[in-house]
Amino acid sequence: MVNGLAYRILGRPDEVDDLVQDSFVQALSSLDRLQNPAAFSSWMGSIVVRTAHKRLRRRSLRTRLGLERDKPIDVEILVSRTAPPDVAIELRAVYGILNRLSAEERVALVLRRVEGMKLAEVAEAMNLSLATVKRRLAKAEKAVAAALEASS
């Protein structure tokens, strides 16, 4: 669960192991705050989301400062070989657009559209209000729709 979520948010296999390790370190250091052991999976997922969000923001800042080249997402690993051709084409286009979204928009969009979380679950995972998540999703979906329309 942790590896898959980390990979779908970051989109780069070379960063996933570091994110997973950072997430587990964070989880171990705050394990005493876990109220309900049955909710471990969602609690761990929210830690992965917050850690990935921080990493995406740092990546964006380093890219803007010229300290890092913006590497594209490895779409071929993310798109299943068994996906129908039309779905695969759309997924490639969407993941190509994800690099251009802000970290906030990207995380919200991946959690909602790729992970299939409900709005309330996205808000909880991102530790945001429902209204904020809705605004970020609307902005991200508008950007994706505009980019898809421009490419067709």
Structure characteristics:
152 residues, mainly alpha, Butyryl-CoA Dehydrogenase, subunit A, domain 3, globular
Q: How many β-strand runs?
A: 0
- What's the domain count? 1
Poorly predicted runs are none
Helicity range of the residues? over 70%
**Distinct helical segment count:** 8
Describe the structure.
- The protein is mainly alpha-helical.
- It has a single domain, classed as Up-down Bundle (Butyryl-CoA Dehydrogenase, subunit A, domain 3), CATH 1.20.140.160.
- Helices cover 73% and strands 0% of the residues.
- It contains eight helices and no strands.
- It has helices at 2-10, 13-29, 40-64, 75-78, 85-98, 103-114, 119-126, 130-151.
- Helix 2 crosses helix 3 (40-64).
- The termini are far apart.
- The model has no long low-confidence stretch (mean pLDDT 84).
Could you give the topology of this structure?
Elements lengths: L1 H9 L2 H17 L10 H25 L10 H4 L6 H14 L4 H12 L4 H8 L3 H22 L1
Helix pairs in contact: 1-2, 1-3, 2-3, 5-8, 6-7, 6-8, 7-8
Task: Summarize this structure briefly.
This protein has helices at residues 2-10, 13-29, 40-64, 75-78, 85-98, 103-114, 119-126, 130-151.
